[in-house]
Amino acid sequence: MVQLTCLLFPLLLLAATNIDIVDELHIKAINAHHNNDNSLALQLIDSAILQETGLPHLSSNLQNTRGVIMRALSDQTSSATSFTQSISLNPLNYNPCYNLANLFHYDVSNPQASLTHYFDALQIIESQFQSQPVDGHVLLLNDYSIALKKLGDDSAAAELLLRATTLNPTDLQSRGNLVIALKDTNRLGEAVHHSKIAIEIDPASSQVRHNYGLVLQQLGEHSEAVTQWQFAVQLDPLCHNSLASLGHEAGGVGNLTGAVHYYNLAYQACLATNQISELSSLQLQIATAVIPLIYKSTEEIAFVRKKYRDNLEKMLALNDLQIDSPETSIGSGSLGYYIIYQGFHDKYLRELLAKVYWKACPSLRGDYVAPLASNSDHKSKVKVKVKVGFHSSFFFHHSVGLLMQGVIAQIDRNQFDVFVFFQNAAVTNLQNDQISSNIRDTDSTIINLPDDLTSSRKTIASHNLDVMIWSEVGMDSTSYFLPFSKLAKKSALFWGHAVTSGIPTIDYFISSSLFEPSTPPPQARYTEKLYQMSSLTTYFNPPVSPRPNLTLSHFGLTFQGDNVHNVYLCPQTLYKLHPDFDRLILGVLLNDPLGIVVFPAGQREEFTTQTMARLNTTTSLTSRIHFVPRMDFDEFISLAQLSNVVLDPFPVGGGRSSFEMFSVGTPIVMLYNRTSILQLTYGMYKTMGIMDAVTYSENDFINKAVAIGKDRSVERNLRERILQQNHLIYQSDLVIDEWNTFLNFMVAEEHDIELLLDQHFDNSIDKNDYADSAYALKLAHEHPQTHDTHQIVVKLKRFDDPIITAKNIALHIDAEYVKFRWLAAVLQHGVMRLEEKIVKRVTINKELDVVVHEGDDLALVATFYGLKYGLNSLGIAELLKRLVQLVPGHGDDLWIEKRRTHDHLMQKEVEAEAEAEAETPNSEGRCYLTVAITTCKRFFLFEQTINSLLLDSELLHSHICEIIVIDDSSSSEDKTRMQQSYPNLTFVFKPPDKRGHAVSMNMILELIETRYMLYLEDDFVFLQNNVVDVIGDGMAVLRQKSEKNGNHNIAQVLLNDQSSRACAYAEPDSAHLDPSERCKREKLGTAGWNRSAGGVLYVEHEFGTVYPSHAFSIWPGFSLNPGIWDLQRLEGCLGSDKFHFDSKDNRFEQSFSVLAMDSGCYFAHLPQTNVRHIGTEISSYVLNEDLRPWG
Predict the structure, then answer these.
(1) pTM of the predicted model, to two decimals?
(2) DSSP secondary structure string for all residues of 940-962
(3) What is the dihedral of CA 912, 914, 915, 917, to 10 degrees?
(4) In DSSP terms, which residues pair with 1126 in a beta bridge?
(5) How far apart are CA 1055 and CA 169, in angstroms?
């Protein structure tokens, strides 16, 4: 959108004096200013002021000139002082009033403060120069109108500009600004009229053509808009605004190739004209112009989703990413609005987009923070009522307005002062809208926000809200960008756009237990903290009555013959229709020869055409698919009443529309499993106690829809029950009770927790060393040659790059890759934590603040603040102990996952794989597991290993499908003994040119056909006759489905505890082991996060923590120690191209482990010692004359 702009204008300097010396100095000062020598100009004007003899009008002119010079020198305070003195000396001098207004407006960015001075200047100029207006009059009207427009008073701005065009009908600036003001007040007919006049004034102006195109676009005359933008580009091939608009228009009808083409041309135009500030914005528009509105196929969804993710990740990696005006960066990507219709959980993508803006636009998060929100002690003043704000760009007859109007009206005014913020009120022309009037008539303070982001932010923050409710985020640009700033003490997002925002500054997402599925855990889908009410969350008013006496023919649905057709209505916008939903439409039509399916026509003709083109590839029955024109609301309700069945599409079904359908009793058939957002229709059915039309498979959906559609008695029965019960979903008092409770919950203060640690300070630590550090840690490093240990202190500021820092340290100490990787993880956790919500504050000794953010590694927090405040080791341990008590959820998967999102070296999104039903453990006695053993010239060890495995004969037949042994260079005698002793095993004897452990592992991956593998080297023996139990425990971890804390992407379970090397090898206590190296029973299960799967205890591994007990956290998790592997999951994480071991890499196990972790796999171990390492005396690497992969 093109904003009103201000032309440069000549400085309004008066030099009216009869004193020659003052006059001469004044003129010289003006000339020096014009020549850009403002230092000289200041000396001259100050000399003139000193010699002035007391004439007020002369003094006023001199002070005005001094104000202009100080403004040029960027001394805003002195400039304002001079202009104010000038006004006081001569109140009828309009120049200082005008200049002071412009100073506040453009230099200080405070248009509100400028209004009084613009008004005064205008009054003076019009009273003094009525008969012959001066040149500055038109400029003043333009600047005044721009300030009004920024503050949201578009109507007043338009009136001023009409006066300007009357004063100077040929002034192109006034005419162009008037066109935009009229467009933004929805006075489109007048905007067209003045656009045509502007073209007559200057037919060669590309900007005039561009603005005319914007007016036509808003009128819905898209082809004419394109014509005007093409004219603009012909007149000026470097008119980047018109090129970008052509891109928006192409993307808006699904022509993404065309959109990217025009965005690239706009990018090149900005390069050529040195408009550097526009480049990142256009890069983002190019990156996000990949999402069509109407998909051709499910495969296209998968392709564009990956491309969108990859493009955003590349944008995030750019070092020079800077977007000054985020509103101009939307483009065809529409802030990711259409991603929700792909049918996936979108948390990662929503968060990724927010991170791009968080990085590119520092002004979004730092321009203004509400005073309450920035209050460091978090102690609110005593208030009579809680101040609650509701914000939206859609408080009119729109889904958001309909959902929110009742809540806004009904919440308890004895407890709450309510503020309603209308965004873009002028653009949406709300004067005659009933919903808007309903909201404005409530006992609320109504604020019309300007279309300027900065002004809106300041206006909201000035009200010092306790709570802000964002009614939707992601459907409008201003509504998306405002929540990046903390504009209230607490904030929450309502489900007006039923997906997480991804924005870190929003505290809560308001949903309901009626809407949220139990698995996966609902919180996993949100960056906000999920707050679940038990009601429908909206005090929805009963919809208007249907228009009477309408028939299907009114909607163009006429049929030949006497057949009564069955009408299946799908009342959703066409971009909600997933390609997979086509199968259900086909199924309904095939099973009901008299059935017709009815859709509302697309907002653009292209949408209808594209939808029909896709349906034509699915079915030959498209003659029974109808598109009805868009209609008035009471007509829409009538069509619903006349329909036999409503088909609820997926992945996003009805919300507001379901309330409307149920008002006339029309049954809605829904498919629960494929709804990927809030289960809104399901929640309404649940509230009414009617579950007949809720289905759980495609066949069930088709059969249920046809049963209702074909059988009038079935339809009538269900319709009557809905009409009897639908009062339960409208205007529920429970909803208001829950809102009152929630709003009070939001402002309930958590008392700061005080911790006294008087005896736990290390006075040798200089706390000033860490005063400006965002994170710091101290490392103990042993020199590889001298074995001397020395300390390395790492300190990072807020915007230091933790990965580059980790690389530099690794180079300095010559660390292997896995140590760099650990350090990179820890440093990222330390810095990125600051972007997350604060969940707890602890005060040490009444003055030292410790702040815990969501997802924090509490040990990392304790050690950092220990350094910062000079705590000794005992003090750090005591602080950690207290933090663990205060944050009981710090070990949950969702908390840990928050840390993983900070690690930019990890792949962030791994699609969940389908479980293979054929490999359900022990299903009907079928085996499911292959055992793989590698051996090398150690038959005496191999024999002990295999014998311990086969102690239980049941195992071989009921669980293990095959035992594969890969032998590396054993003697011919040993090979014969193996085959003779164990004839039921599969042996692979490698040739000499295939030596090496990595080669053996790759052979195993090629040979195994089962999903699960138990891997052993030839020197591990099971300790007891419990092999079946051990394998069963490992399988329970891998196959878990719905345990509360179970991570469903675990790819390997190690059979031994990993709290120490002695435990990992199940080494027996002996005299040669130092007591600190022994496997201690009390340490079992401490090297990670304790979990349970079907009653089986296990430990989930986390890489990159600093918890003292998590000894295994320096290793990525995957290991060649005895363990059960989920091969399907490993390959799913890594991809088939990376699912192998590098035989040229001496550290292949380490490399594979890092890669598997970074690809999204998780790892676990059992908290016992089940398998003992017996090959400590002689290594297979030595026997095979290979290099050990460690020092």
Answers:
(1) 0.66
(2) HHHHHHHHHHTTSHHHHHHTEEE
(3) 180
(4) 1012
(5) 86
